[in-house]
Amino acid sequence: MAITKVWIEEGCIVCNACEAECPDVFLVTADSCHIKADSRVDGKQDENLVAKSELKADLHRSLEDAIVAAAAGCPVNVIKYEQVANAAEAPAAPPVDAEIDAALGKALGAPEPAPSAAPAPAAAPAPAVVAAAQAPEAATDKPRITKVWIEEGCIVCNACEADSPEVFRVTETTCMIKPGVRLDGKETENRQEKNGLKPEDGERLMDSIIAAAKGCPVNVIKYDVFGNVPAAEEAPAAAAADSGPYVYDYKAAPNRQVAMPKTAPLASFHAYEAEQKALAEADEAKWQKQLADFETAKAKAAAEGKDAPKPPVRAVPRKDDNDLKFPAPTDAKDPDLLRLHALLGDKVSQSFEQAGELTCQVHPDCILETLMLCRGDHELNYEMLADQTATHYPAAEGFDFSIVYHLTSIARRKRLRLRVLVKEGQVVDSATQVYPSANWMEREIWDMLGIRFENHPDLTRILCPEGWEGFPLRKEYPTLGWGQRDIDFREDRAGVVMRMAMEKAGQMGINLVVPKAD
User: Fold this and answer.
1) pLDDT value of position 509
2) pTM for the complete prediction?
């Protein structure tokens, strides 16, 4: 193939992209783009929209790739060209020696060979005029994806962009085929145009496109193939409308996987005691090994008639008054903690003091009784619930969440922390029956972590809209996105990169419908 003509349609935005791709043909001026005079047969320099002057013959093949790239990269699609197939070579004339041999044979009376069927003259190929939006595919017989498009029903789950970011771009409402891989240089779903992929991209990105089609949960990614290309497996049919909201499949987007914590850093006096005991046992075992090694070395030296080795010395940590003191938890000695122990008995799991703070952990079933006691008992008199919050501990054993109640005694100027440990799905009595201020706090805990409170007057979402999928403060909640720190906005005067960044940051992978005000 060879490009014979190239011209500029109306609507050029003088973006300079074409001149950057093919400076031998294009020249961007103050108001338009021109076809250079030294590349045209007529020697003029303008848009070539009217004259349609041909390119010089020696440039037909040498600048073909650069012109196609410039046309594909034009953001407003105003670069057009004509492209024709190369003329077929004429059949070679019979060699002169063969003509002489035939003439001698006829003169000597030799029988003439049977006439062979002369090959039909090849028809001259008709010129194939192609616009920039339909550039031909490269002459290759390698398997490749020729077209890819998005059918209706995209749920913007971001799985396709995770598998093939060079081809797909997920926006707020749908998925787009990027202009860098398309022949027409546009960015749409490609549902109507069915525009082809660049041949080299169709071959290079074949595996990732097939993987994206396999991973699409609603099976809307379609493609055409050339050659022996493995077909994508059919995705399971979409669930019925009455089967509940769509649940995001994390396997469809591996880059959305969240690294879960391996430990549960929950302040606990019992855990601290167990840790210190384990450290002491390990240190004692190390010291006993040193003593055993010394006795062995001593016996060996005596047998060989050598001097006995020096006995080991147990290491003692150096004390420095400037060292920071770790606020280790200690056993409960405060009168309030002792009174709670006396009144509740076995309902208290543990109580301790740490850095001047009082913590009492009780069983979840008796939290309401404990709150009523803290407020009603004349010696305790914690009349205000200052705060109530919760934390997710996925690596913990025996519980999943910790709910903490921060109580304040204004008259006595004291604070007390109550804590309960609950499992997934466990319901806890609402503190609103004792402290009405717990209303919004427990709604926030339900909204962010999904912990339900029994007898709450209005347990609905308070920060996220109704219908929001997932609980944002759980450790498995995906929050990956571009983020503005990854982009330099100083050169983004038009705000395009900012808009793209905000769209990307909003695609958290599980909330598929962007809430809008009515």
Assistant:
1) 44
2) 0.48
